[in-house]
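This entry is listed below:
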Amino acid sequence: SGEACCLGELLQRSEVVFHLYHQPLNSAPREAPKDCLLGTVRVPTRDLLIRRSGLRGWYPVILPEDLLASQRADVTQSIVGGLEISVAFVLPADRERVLETATHVGWDWKDTYSEDPWEDSESEERTPSTSLRVTISTPRLWLPLQSMLLAGEAHLNKSVYFYLRYKLYDQEATWSSLRRPKLTEGDTRGMVIFKKPNRTDLQSSPTLLWYFREEKLELQVWRAYGKDGDAERPLDTDRLIGSAYVDLAPLAESSRKKKTVSGVFPLFRRNAANLGGAALRIHIAVTPAGP
């Protein structure tokens, strides 16, 4: 058609698609082995334009479409694994060249993004520092039965507890109170309820905004045996079940007084035997701190 399309436009609306297959090794001699599609990972590429660090972290592996239709799985049950990836421009200046080229062919990326992802922090440094209150609420945790059982046991032990642990910005690591799980859905899944939100006051600064724009908050789910509420966690006997990762970029928007991130986030962990259906509901809000 003669219309020019630049890399910036393509990255803004495209995605990287990974197909994960299982290749059988012990098939019959006369039969050609058939690879089995385990799931698909779709990663939007727009973060290559927004984040200096590019695409990195865990992304969910979703059931193939034919199995999704037949099983009618919910959002968490449709996630059968996780893929940890890292994709970034080789040279830091490549992002700027992509934008500059986009401008020359008529694509105004400033109309697409409300915030300038390449803007230096000069204007932020001139802005007086204000106190911000970050409220993190994690009302519900869902886990498969297998991740709640102690080694060698077939039933949920009454001395098993769960807690959350995370480190926000430059603060010391914090952990929630220990909570007992309750079995649901025919005793195949469990749910843990955390009632008390955590509030932290931070001073606004260029480094805090950089943290919101570039980093993901990792919330770890730990299993404990016994309720020693005064001990510093984790103990040597505690076991890491998995982590939920929250994109904090919406908290860096300057156009709103109250910024929020909310959703149900799957749990990931390297070499985990089974985290199917494991998820954590998370609400994060940033508001001006009161006097």
Remarks:
- The mean pLDDT is 87.
- The radius of gyration is 22 Å.
- The first strand starts at residue 15 and ends at 22.
- The chain has two domains: 7-112, 131-288.
